[in-house]
Amino acid sequence: MEKVITAHNLTRTFGDFTAVDAISFEVGKGEIFGFLGANGAGKTTAMKMLIGILSPSAGSATVAGFDLVTESEKIKRNIGYMSQRFSLYEDLTVMENIRFYAGIYGLSLSAIREKSSSMLERLELSGESKTLVRALPLGWKQKLAFSLAIIHEPKIVFLDEPTGGVDPATRRRFWEMIYETAAGGMTVFVTTHYMDEAEYCNRVSIMVDGKIEALDEPSRLKQQYHADSMDAVFQIMASGAKRSE
Amino acid sequence: MIRQFYIFVKKEFIHILRDPKSLLIIIAMPIAQIIIFGFALTNEIKNANFGILVTQPDNTTRTLTERLDASAYFDLALVTDNMEDAEKAFLKDEIKMLVVFEPGFEQALLHTNEAAVNLITDATDPNTATTLRYYASIIIKDYQQELRDAGSLPYSIETNIRMLYNPQLVGAYNFVPGVMGMILLLISAMMTSISIVREKELNTMEVLLASPLQPFLLILSKAVPYVILSLINLTTILVISTTLLDLPIRGSLLLIFAESFLFITTAISLGLMISNITDKQQTALFISLMGLLLPTLILSGFMFPIENMPKAMQILSNAVPTKWFFIIIKNIMIKGLGWASVWKQSLVLVGMTTVFLTVSIVKFKPRLA
Hints:
heterodimer; A: Rossmann fold; six-stranded mixed sheet; four-stranded antiparallel sheet; 10 strands; B: alpha/beta; abc type-2 transporter like fold; 2 domains
């Protein structure tokens, strides 16, 4: 399988504190890769290094085939990112948000027009293009944010706790969107602390105290730890954690 | 890249236009400030009530009283022949100044060439008291001069006072350049820092940094709307002060705009520096207000003369950008001087801008890389 992310001993320290401690892993094309860990385990720091907004203290990585340190500009063209808080502008309308994000990724006006109408239709937001994002329900904001993160058809999309605070039904629909996206060949790198969501991933890694303690398919992990759910696996792993929030 | 820039600037304008509160601040603040400083907060005094205490009224005391009353500065509110009434009037705040003529005033003046007028002022407000005393003594001196010219006084010692560039001592000549500096600094620095910090607070900054958007383009797009707004404000201020406050623009208008543009750049680079220090909009607001407004008010020279300050404060005042802008604008607008008189101050502003920009870029970088 073609590798789109490779990390080798990737490390980030803040003063004396080692937030991410020499992690190594690979992610294949079209894979849904779950990046799990308790709060403070270092998953957001690791993700920020991979998307190029935080420089690694040691180690190396390639993302979309480009070197993390020397080719970060090229990486930025080939990835999408959705942050924890959906990162939409609440005082802009749905359409204005679409135009803005598509615009900074350099999409042409005709491409934006085409994409936005199909996107709005898919999201069932066609009647809401002039609505301020502020007025949208949380679930719709989340789906819109995801659609905007992949509007430029990146090779990899990074999702940082994309389902925080969203109701279970919406979460299910959101994961259907993720599946569709991955089926189209896009790699999905997702952090979450909902263990039921971990079951939807092709492979998961579990971070404890800045290190990757486990990395495999959910079914194999369950087998290995003699657990009947990912939640149980996670409890076993996390019980050894020294760091807390 | 030009399209990215255009899209980003457009977004910034939508933010500004959709937020009526900040829009109100940006548009109304300059107008309110100029009017407050121009009319209410001037140290000119008009129509101050005064009283006269005279036991033996004669032509001279009457003429002097009329002269004072007729001036724009004084209104006669009390004529009395005893001190008790005058004191009561002072206590009730009916008069701010009392003119006491000695008994036999005219006789004394004609025969001994000397007559005493006492000016008693309510010094609970020392500034007002000083100003009133100053106005009154000028009016009295003028009258004395007339008597001398008429030949009725043998010895004449002429004192000539000339107030250069601002003969009427109009406060607005001083306040308008000061308020201009204050508003341009506040709007540019505060709004730029808040609008950048807001992106951090909303987490949208991360998404922007993870996008192919060049950081300098991001910063430039943030700055441009406030440059435009500041230039609009500058125009508003100039229009109001020339029409309502009768302020002259003696120098080159083009030079005023060019220097203001330089100062706005200084202010925006200050705003960038502030946005690097903090991740909270409230902190950015607080730093802008405390760190910029207060030093500007106190140390830029437009409210308190720097020459009268302790040495340490005088040295400190050099670090306040508004001080230099204030000198530049006064030289151009009021004195009608040209580039030759302001290039040094302009150079100081260029230097400051370079330092602020360098610091913010150096501090901004580790967050991106």
